[in-house]
Automatic annotation (TrEMBL):
Lineage, opening ranks: Bacteria, Bacillati, Actinomycetota, Actinomycetes, Actinomycetales
One GO cellular component, as annotated: plasma membrane
Family: Belongs to the BMP lipoprotein family.
Signal sequence, renumbered to the chain: 1-23
PANTHER family recorded: ABC TRANSPORTER GUANOSINE-BINDING PROTEIN NUPN, TRANSCRIPTIONAL ACTIVATOR PROTEIN MED
SUPFAM superfamilies given in the database record: Periplasmic binding protein-like I
Subcellular location: Cell membrane
Keywords attached to this entry: Cell membrane, Lipoprotein, Membrane, Signal
Domain ABC transporter substrate-binding protein PnrA-like positions: 48-363
Name assigned to this protein: BMP family ABC transporter substrate-binding protein
Pfam families named in the record: Bmp
Length: 377
């Protein structure tokens, strides 16, 4: 699929180059109170671009979600787009420079690993707007504080603890063994936040029902737990999941991007052996991105990255000034949520479903606070 994505991108790029021969010159920009320029060109003159991390645009996770948002913007807004995939950290800077050279008005960078490269590119090219997905500004370790805010650098971050709380509550209500598990790809704020919310959802279920459902793989108080160490080694994901299953967990939430494919493989293998294992996917609706494994996926903790990409692009196309204030996706603004239960729908009781709806409303109106030390500020 990755090859097909590259082929699509190449075809799109050729079309853009051919179209450029008759396109109007790049529109002038006018200064705004926000400090960067608001495009005054028509939609057909606007170009939004995206750089992936090493997962690529077919990762069935946040890169793919972001790319789908970019494609939606092209289709619905009539803009030009361009994209480039990274295979390693060494590709980040040249890929960003490539898109800068292609006269992109707005460049999205997907993932925390691109933080420094994107910040540096924004600082060097104040006439281009940049949006960093799933990470805030880079941190200055020597000064012990974030780097200076740039007017053309916007973080798109997600308070996934809120949606993970709902998933944890659902998992606690569906487990047959009284044990559920989770693990991370790398121990980072953007992954730990899922496990924090998941842990609190289980805790709330226990308080509501007088149960003692246990979470394996993560200790919120200690901010420590199991991690594979990367976002690429599927075999590590399978081994970690098998270990959790052997400890009694029957619902597993991998917070590890493409490594989660190993969890699906381990769950299928265990179920073929007579167990009843299900999975909570993250970032995107796992049933839609992994249709062949739909019978394994209870629900998903979704970051609606595509919506954030589309909305950020649309604001600029509509002539709104670019704002460097972070976009924070949460339950209230529908930036995060859990996915439908799909194949598990008939197995979820009306009482559990009603309680999840009640909790979602309480989170949205602020009467229920889901707190994590890793939540975006």
């Amino acid at each position: 699929m990755k090859n097909s994505m590259r082929a699509m991108a190449a075809t799109a790029g050729l079309a853009l180059m051919l179209g450029a021969c008759s396109a109007a010159p790049e529109a002038e920009k006018t200064a705004t109170a926000e400090g960067t320029a608001a495009p005054v060109a028509s939609a057909k003159d606007f170009k939004a671009c995206m750089v992936s991390d090493e997962g690529g645009f077919d990762d069935k996770s946040f890169n793919q979600s972001g790319f789908e948002g970019l494609q939606r913007a092209q289709k619905e807004l009539g803009i030009q787009i361009a994209s480039t995939e990274s295979n390693s950290d060494a590709d980040f800077e040249p890929n960003l420079n490539k898109l800068i050279g292609e006269k992109c008005n707005l460049i999205f960078a997907v993932g925390f690993k691109l933080a420094s490269a994107t910040y540096n590119a924004a600082k060097a090219h104040p006439d281009v707007d940049f949006a960093l997905i799933d990470s805030a500004e880079p941190f200055d370790e020597k000064a012990g504080k974030p780097l200076d805010k740039l007017p053309n650098f916007k973080p798109l971050v997600f308070n996934t603890a809120e949606a993970a709380f709902l998933a944890g509550y659902a998992a606690a209500g569906m487990t047959q063994t009284g044990k559920v598990g989770t693990y991370l790809g790398m121990k980072l704020p953007t992954t730990a936040i899922f496990a924090d919310g998941f842990a609190d959802g289980i805790k709330r279920y226990n308080a509501d029902h007088g149960t003692d459902v246990k979470l394996l793989g993560w200790d919120k108080d200690k901010q420590d737990g199991q991690a594979t160490g990367d976002f690429s080694d599927v075999n590590k994901g399978k081994a970690t999941t098998t270990n959790l299953i052997n400890q009694g967990a029957d619902i597993i939430m991998p917070v590890a991007g493409p490594v989660g494919a190993g969890t699906l493989a381990a769950a299928k293998e265990a179920n073929d052996g007579g167990k009843n294992i299900s999975v909570v996917w993250v970032d995107s609706d796992g049933v839609l991105t992994n249709p062949n494994d739909s019978k394994l996926i209870l629900t998903s903790v979704m970051k609606l990255i595509g919506e954030a990409v589309f909305d950020t692009t649309k604001d600029l196309v509509d002539g709104k000034p670019f704002s460097s204030d972070p976009y924070v996706g949460n339950v209230a603004n529908k930036g995060v949520d859990i996915a439908p239960f799909h194949d598990f729908d008939s197995k979820v009781s009306d009482d559990l479903r009603a309680k999840l709806d009640e909790l979602r409303k309480q989170i949205a109106d602020g009467s229920l606070k889901v707190e994590s030390p890793n939540s975006p500020k």
